Amino acid sequence: MARQKSRLQLAERSPAPQRRSRVTLFDQAYERIEELLVDCTLRPGRFLTVHDLQDLTGFGRTPVHHAVNRLAADTLIVIRPRHGLQIVPINLARERLLLKLRRDMERFVVILAAERADAAHVERFRDLEHALTVQRAQLTLAQFNVLDREIDRLILSAAGEPFLEHSLRPLRTLFRRIGHIHHSHVPGRIGLGGTIERHRAIVAAIASGRAKAAATASDALIDYVDSMFEALAHDIEPALLDCGAEIPSGRPAASGAYSGPAVRTGLHQQHQA
What we know:
The chain is mainly α. It folds into two domains: about 15-90, Orthogonal Bundle (Arc Repressor Mutant, subunit A), CATH 1.10.10; about 90-235, Four Helix Bundle (Hemerythrin (Met), subunit A) (Up-down Bundle), CATH 1.20.120.530. Helix content is about 70%, strand content about 5%. It contains twelve helices and three strands, in the order ααβααββαααααααα. It has helices at about 1-15, 15-40, 50-55, 60-75, 90-115, 120-135, 140-160, 160-185, 195-205, 210-225, 230-235, 260-270, and strands at about 45-50, 75-80, 85. It has a three-stranded antiparallel β-sheet. Strand 2 (about 75-80) and strand 3 (about 85) form a beta hairpin. The termini are far apart. Residues about 1-20 and about 245-273 have low confidence and may be disordered.
């Protein structure tokens, strides 16, 4: 009887490593697709299939399908029956409104991080501060985005509140994509120095436990992101926000809240009112 019980316990435990591996693949697939969204390899408004994403990422159907469901819940991908998947076009008016939400949430999370960071967190924050200071002039946009993701993860880890990750993750992806388009396509654009310095200020404040300074630095970063919207509305091609005009015949073009050209007009009207 004891031997049977031992075998039963072993059988119950044995699937756990496989499940952990599968979850890791899910997360890796999500992060890879997120990267392709941010750098616009997956262009805003583009239609594609799960199989297309498998080819682009190298992951199998199950992790990609799981990642797509998460991205759909994050409002980054739209699942359109009979037409496959659509990368959500950039709606400048909507995303500028969501930036107000991100401001409050980022302020809250950096305050928690400054108050709760342990010695290991502080050491890593100081490493990142040093990297942003020393490498500032050499960082490419892709390299900076790698550091930016690490900073985001470290802030959430130091804050110690898992709920915040699910709320902030899609917002950060939206605005990382905004930043990529701004730094890559706006005529006469300035370098990365402004955004790097604002991130460095946040990291330095958290590392030294200065919650109020961290909140002030976070607000300064959000103000900087907000300043990008005017240039995006006036100085870039609408297809960068929504490639819907290139959708093959028979597939529905993005409409309503997701219409790139309409968003540009709406944003102009807001400022003329």
